[in-house]
Amino acid sequence: MSGLVRWGFLGAGFIASKAMAPALREVAGASLQVVGARDLARAEALEPVRATTSYAEVCEADDVDAVYISLPNDAHLEWVVRALEAGKHVLCEKPLAMNAAEVAQIQAAADRTGLLAVEAAWNRWHPRTRRAEELALEMSGPRSMAAWFTFPGVPTDNYRLEARRGGGALLDVGTYAVAAAHWALDADVFDVDVASANVGSTGVDLTTTAVLSCGAGRAEVRSSFEQPESQGLRVESGDRVIDLGSQAFTSWRAPSELLVVEGGVGGVGGVGGIGGIERVETFEACDAYQLMLEAMSARVRGDDAWLLPLSTSWQVAATLDAIAAFATSN
């Protein structure tokens, strides 16, 4: 197709209203045609051409080319597949599904329909993340990495505290850390060496930590709903360190920096010691939600643009499954 890419949204919650709808308004050649939400007033607040309380109406609309889904995690599989089968390309919030088996079902539906299904892991479109991935791939020898995303407190009425709806810290913020482990170590598959979880009264993990290993090295990941607010991502090898700093995953509309240390002695973890040369790469303020929507809209039109592959989403989901299984059994 060519021309205007017409979007429909399923859900009008925080991310849809505060990030995605404003970002879409800045995308040339795209429009927000219809928003579906249980609360019609919330749908109308996103200023679409029209609003509805019916998710099915959005998926079946003749004037919609692509659907963005920001529903609770347990609703992702159903509505991704329904949108694909209705002839719509799909961009769905992370985690794409509750587990790797559900991601495989989404892959099958995308293959069957010949349409795009993409996980909206927005930080992967940020220029700093793209640069960090490039630098990590250049590293030689064994690598180690640490990634964490923690914050205290989730409202008691939020689905993130409901196990049956895909709640828990691992599936919410742990996806950032585990995805980073995959690209930092260029790993398709990880072994879970150690994993533990603190499960709250509602049955979801409030904190999960894990140590992962692959042929390229070792990764430590941590996610939490009960620890002080903190984010970090650091990758080390014998010849380089890269560190994304305190807003490792959520830099938004603000300048950002990437610390790189070259050389030094001491092997993995020793970079930055004797002889290490530091530099700071800077990145202008940008909206990675907008960059993601621009790329997705371009692909819907048939133009070239990078999108996160479904195979990567499956790999991350499989590692999340393995961490959860290990933590539950120990």
Automatic annotation (TrEMBL):
Species annotation: freshwater metagenome
PANTHER family hit by this protein: OXIDOREDUCTASES, TRANS-1,2-DIHYDROBENZENE-1,2-DIOL DEHYDROGENASE
Chain ranges of the Gfo/Idh/MocA-like oxidoreductase N-terminal domain: 5-116
Boundaries of every GFO/IDH/MocA-like oxidoreductase domain copy: 142-235
Record keywords: Oxidoreductase
Name of the protein described by the UniProt record: Unannotated protein
Membrane-crossing segments per the record: none
Gene Ontology MF annotations: nucleotide binding; oxidoreductase activity
Family in the record: Belongs to the Gfo/Idh/MocA family.
